[in-house]
Amino acid sequence: MRFAAIANHFGDKYRHAILAMDGDYECLARVASEVPVKQLNILVRKHDTLGSVFRFRRALREQSTDLLVTYNWGAIEWAIANRPRILPHVHIEDGFGPDEADSQLLRRRLTRRFALSRSIVALPSRTLERAALRQWHLPKDRVRYIPNGIDCAKFTGRQAPIRFTQGCGPVIGTVAALRPEKNIARLLRAFRVVREKTACRLLIAGDGQQRGDLERLARATLPAESVVFVGHVDAVERVYSSIDVFALSSDTEQMPTSVMEAMASGLPVVATDVGDVAEMLTAENRAFVVSRDDEAFAGALLKLVADASLRDALGSANQSAACARFGVSRMFADYDAVFASEIGKS
Fold it and tell me: Is the pTM of this model over 0.85?
């Protein structure tokens, strides 16, 4: 999503040759037609690190390319393939999967230290920046903190909400890929506790591998009129206009875009204490950043569901903070500076 935003902003300033390591190119539909993009046809085999490194190194020599940009652990073999260096390299790390939610795996820390020590490493959170310096032991002059940004104007105005057909009470909502690390099951369990004490509803926007399981859990434990899964929503600002409390129930995050969007939309946030979330929110809202515990999460939700004036006060403070700190222009400028600087070394 961030790549698509950056590519669209710069138009034909950059040409992009893209390899999706999992073969999923769905996000290319979000890239504007005037952006020069081609898909690379390079064999990717799981559990064939050595073979992949040789194939990727050959591709780096053969492609007419000025800069290698890799994203996350899944592309680390490209960073290894670029040692000794063929191209300038920028690695963008967004966070960790479920297997590193509690602590980083030693072999991955060591691999990152080796593969990325001569690369520029761009990180969207202070949590990741600390990990890069203290655990991966990367040189400080190679690490760049570039916070994510959003188009705040898109979210500050009220949009046509998504209507519930039944039910009453404030709406708790989330926007998330339905993957294990987002732990939407925690949100469903907490919502059940809240609903036993007060009238409320739950809106879940997003799609993913866990959707079927989560819908079955909701049907088994909650009244049908109390929860709705709306799937992927293109105009995501409509989701935020439909809810009263935003909930982030993840086991691992860094600087989640959904929290920035919720803040810009003037919403209070209940979240697990992951990544930079507490630092992102206003001081007033930080009391609702809790441990990864169902009971604590439910308690925070209940306080906000029951207090409309508190919701309004927190939402207003969050909106002012988001518009002051998370504008997308700074993010574009920072990435442009990194890309241009490294391309100049090719």
Answer: no
